[in-house]
From TrEMBL:
Its EC number is 6.3.2.9. It comes from Pedobacter xixiisoli. The gene is murD. It comes from the Bacteria. It holds the Pfam family Mur_ligase_M. It is found in: Cytoplasm. Cell wall formation. Catalyzes the addition of glutamate to the nucleotide precursor UDP-N-acetylmuramoyl-L-alanine (UMA). Residues 126-305 form the Mur ligase central domain. It catalyses: UDP-N-acetyl-alpha-D-muramoyl-L-alanine + D-glutamate + ATP = UDP-N-acetyl-alpha-D-muramoyl-L-alanyl-D-glutamate + ADP + phosphate + H(+). This is UDP-N-acetylmuramoylalanine--D-glutamate ligase. Its main location: cytoplasm.
Length: 464
């Protein structure tokens, strides 16, 4: 690195007029570095810019590939001359550098859009406010067990672009966030899954649920009658937005409230999945590895994907019966003095916390809080009143949680570390109850990520 600035020493090459098309990558995390790798392999002149510091592992990757980069700044002279820009999903469209690019007419796209250009693999794209990771992992598990040559990417695991650069898969299961969808234009999902739409990330959507819903519906853009669209027929916001969108793909709804002809439904605790009227899959919900109402929906969605691909019923049943959920999603940690400790750190919005509370059948000491993204806690009120005996706030600013629940629970305590929260919970929890970490908020005020938050919680429980 240059001693007097934060630009890598190869930058001087980028100042010259390049014969090759120039790709600039904004953000040097998993997504950005993967895109840089693929861009270099495709022969582009590549430059990477991160407004923050770059993690050592990604910096080493860029240096090993001899890709010029900068950190802790965006140098306009090195960015605005791009032919095209690949933007990491965490960078908002309102960021000054993105506004400058748009004003100059430089196309700004997502890593997913960029990577899809260079693979013939078919894609199963899963989005929704809640359950994306679980459903993505379950779908991937089913396809792997069935022997398909399948990769896992998107908002989970290794970068899609990096895998396209290195590996030749026939299928990819992609977890797709609204932030990714916002920068996808020509991309087409062979199978699109929309699990639900509930208020989340509204700070990125002018606090309008309609804007967020419109972003989620981009999952079906460019689909044809040869493709499949799988969605929850019980979800109110999905039903509203579906009335405004023309769906070209074959639609497969899933519901636990009513029968559907093609798709999935629940009747007397038996799931029925059919995409072909002559070959219905049935499975008792008691045989599902993932329990709770929300996981019936997730399992239905994955099961429909498997049936669209005409996988064997026996393989689908086995896969859905043996699957182990991802870390930090309703993850059992320990039972101490007849009190269960559950890590649901991945619950970064109110709806996820609703699902978590709904799935617990005991009294609850709830640990919640963090970076509030415009949360409306009203939907939690009935569950909090009936189940929650104490709330332990884990965040720097807990005022909105106090305001929301001070009339519904007797005890609300502020804490500022996972260790402190667990210690307080240990003293408040009674035998037979559950200590549930389900924050309903992002983690970045006190932790590096929801994984860091969950890991610190688990470590603190194990110290009890």
């Amino acid at each position: 690195m240059n001693s007097n600035n934060n630009i890598s020493q190869n930058q001087s090459q980028s100042n010259t007029t390049a014969v090759r098309s120039r790709i600039v990558i904004l953000g040097a995390g998993e997504s950005g570095v993967g895109a840089a790798k693929l861009a270099q392999k495709q022969g582009f002149d590549v430059f990477v810019s991160d407004f923050g510091s770059i993690a050592a592992i990604y910096k080493a990757d860029l240096q090993s590939m001899n890709i010029p980069f900068e950190e802790n700044q965006h140098t306009e002279a090195l960015i605005l001359n791009a032919t095209e820009v690949v933007k990491s999903p965490g960078i908002p469209s309102k960021a000054p550098i993105v506004k400058a690019l748009v004003e100059k007419g430089v196309p700004v796209i997502s890593e997913i859009e960029f990577a899809k250009r260079y693979t013939n693999a078919k894609t199963i794209c899963i989005t929704g406010s809640n359950g994306k990771s679980t459903t993505t992992m379950l779908t991937y598990h089913i396809l792997q067990k069935a022997g398909l040559n399948v990769g896992l990417a998107g908002n989970i695991g290794r970068s899609f672009a990096a895998q396209v650069a290195d590996i030749d898969f026939d299928w990819y299961v992609l977890e797709i966030s609204s932030f990714m969808l916002d920068d996808m234009y020509e991309f087409r999902a062979d199978i699109a899954v929309l699990l639900n739409i509930t208020p989340d990330h509204l700070d990125r959507y002018d606090y309008q649920i309609a804007n967020y819903a419109a972003s989620k519906m981009r999952i079906v853009q460019n689909q044809t009658s040869a493709d499949a669209f799988i969605y929850c027929a019980d979800d109110e916001e999905t039903k509203k937005i579906l009335d405004k969108v023309n769906i070209e793909a074959q639609a497969y709804p899933f519901s636990i409230l009513k029968k559907v002809e093609q798709g999935a439904y629940l009747e007397e605790n038996i799931i029925h999945i059919n995409t072909n009227l002559n070959n219905t899959l049935t499975m008792s919900i008691s045989d599902l590895a993932l329990q709770g109402k929300h996981n019936i929906y997730n399992s239905m969605a994955s099961g429909i994907v498997a049936k669209v691909l005409e996988l064997r019923n026996e393989t689908i049943r086995e896969s859905m019966g043996e699957f182990k959920n991802i870390d930090h999603r309703l993850e059992f940690v320990a039972k101490i003095n007849d009190v269960a400790y559950i890590n649901d750190s991945k619950a970064t919005n109110v709806n996820s916390t609703w699902y978590a509370l709904e799935s617990v059948n005991t009294d609850v000491v709830l640990i919640m809080g963090g970076v509030d993204k415009g949360n409306d806690y009203e939907m939690l009120r009935d569950l909090v009143k009936s189940k929650v005996k104490a709330i332990i706030c884990l965040g720097k600013d807990n005022k909105r949680i106090h305001d929301a629940f001070e009339d519904d629970v007797d005890v609300i305590v502020n804490t500022f570390s996972a260790e402190e929260a667990v210690q307080v919970a240990y003293h408040l929890a009674k035998k037979g109850s559950t200590v549930l970490l389900s924050p309903a908020c992002a983690s970045f005020d006190l932790f590096k990520s929801y994984e860091d938050r969950g890991n610190q919680f688990k470590a603190a429980v194990k110290e009890l």
